[in-house]
C-alpha cells in the first residue's frame, strides 16, 4: 500500500470528528441563514439537530460537507482546518465524508446499476482496500455484496436499477454507499422524511445498529423531535439560523428547556419509532 492510500486509513482518537466554530453564512443577495453556529461531534456520537423548516439545518450540513462555502467561522474535519486546503486535499477529505439525504431517488443515478452506484465513492479512492474486505476476495461484486448485506439487502440487488427498488430499499443503498469508505462521520439529513411510517422505523433502526457496529459518528438532522430523540446522544435546537440550545438527550423533558423546544415537545409523537427490534 503506498503512502497516499495508507494515509486514508483511520486513526481513532478521542478528538472531535467535526468542530464548527462561529459559522456564519448569507446567500448572495439574501438574508443571513446561519448565525454564529458552533458545534462539536465526538467519535461514535450522534448529534441531533432539530428545527422548523428554513432554520438552516441543511445549509449547515452542506457547509460541514464542504459542499457550500461560509462567510465567517472555522470548520475542522478529522483534525484538519478546511479553509485553505488545497484542491486535492479537499477532494480526498470529501471522499471520506458520508452523507445520506432525504430523497434517495435523487441520490442514485437512474442509469447506473446498484453495483455501480454503490461503488462510486470507492472508485474515487483508487487502491483503497476497505478493512471489511481484508483477507477476503475483493472484486467489485464481492464488495457490493458485502455492502448490501450490511444494510440487509440481498446480493442479487446489485444488478438492479433504482426504479426496481422501493423508497426504503433505495435509502438502504445510499446508506450502504455512505459507509463504503469507512467514514468516521456521516451526515444524515432527514434520511427518513420521504418514507412511510413503517419504513421510517426500519431505516432508523438500521442506522442505529450500523452506528453500534461501525462506531461511526452521526449528524442527524430532522424536523421530527421524536426521531432526533430516538437517534441522538445530544440534541441541538435551531431557529432562524441560530442555535437556541444544546443538551444531552436525557434533558429533553426538563422544565427549564427553551420555550421553543417546549413548543416542539407539544407535537412530540413516537408513532414512527421502533418499539421492538424490527427484522429487516
Ligand atoms: N441556494 C440558496 N440560495 C438562497 N437561499 C437559500 C439557498 N438554500 C437555502 N436557502 C435559504 O436558507 C434558509 C435555510 O434553508 P435550509 O434548507 O438550510 O433550512 P432547513 O432548516 O434545512 O429547512 P428544511 O427543514 O425545510 O429542509 C431558507 O430561508 C432558505 O430559503
Automatic annotation (TrEMBL):
<protein>
    <submittedName>
        <fullName>Peptide ABC transporter ATP-binding protein</fullName>
    </submittedName>
</protein>
<dbReference type="InterPro" id="IPR027417">
    <property type="entry name" value="P-loop_NTPase"/>
</dbReference>
<dbReference type="InterPro" id="IPR017871">
    <property type="entry name" value="ABC_transporter-like_CS"/>
</dbReference>
<keyword id="KW-0547">Nucleotide-binding</keyword>
<dbReference type="Pfam" id="PF00005">
    <property type="entry name" value="ABC_tran"/>
</dbReference>
<keyword id="KW-0067">ATP-binding</keyword>
<keyword id="KW-0813">Transport</keyword>
<feature type="domain" description="ABC transporter">
    <location>
        <begin position="18"/>
        <end position="265"/>
    </location>
</feature>
<dbReference type="GO" id="GO:0055085">
    <property type="term" value="P:transmembrane transport"/>
</dbReference>
<comment type="similarity">
    <text>Belongs to the ABC transporter superfamily.</text>
</comment>
<dbReference type="InterPro" id="IPR050319">
    <property type="entry name" value="ABC_transp_ATP-bind"/>
</dbReference>
<dbReference type="GO" id="GO:0016887">
    <property type="term" value="F:ATP hydrolysis activity"/>
</dbReference>
<dbReference type="InterPro" id="IPR003439">
    <property type="entry name" value="ABC_transporter-like_ATP-bd"/>
</dbReference>
<dbReference type="GO" id="GO:0005524">
    <property type="term" value="F:ATP binding"/>
</dbReference>
<dbReference type="InterPro" id="IPR003593">
    <property type="entry name" value="AAA+_ATPase"/>
</dbReference>
